[in-house]
Write a structure and sequence with these properties.
single chain; about 80 residues; 2 helices; globular
Length: about 80
């Protein structure tokens, strides 16, 4: 399923989310592998989709998340 319009219409979007360990590990693996920015964007989109939009598996089943026109991502480990 694809939306023709972005859900979040903002110049800057800040989300403070706790990623599940498997998503955090995937982001670190993709980054360490030296892959393309597109691969890192897709891993980030998958993590956001699971945690923010689908809230695990409790809503928005089947929703695909795609990041476009992104300028910056920042991740912090706690």
């Amino acid at each position: 399923m694809r939306c023709s319009r972005p859900t979040i219409d903002s110049a800057a979007f800040t989300a403070l989310l706790a990623l599940p360990p498997h998503q955090a590990a995937r982001l670190l693996e993709v980054q360490a592998a030296g892959t393309t920015n597109r691969d890192l964007q897709q891993a980030t989109a998958d993590a956001l989709g699971e945690v923010y939009f689908r809230q695990g598996r409790s809503r928005a089943h089947g929703l695909d998340v795609e990041l476009t026109d992104t300028e910056q991502f920042a991740f912090e480990l706690y």
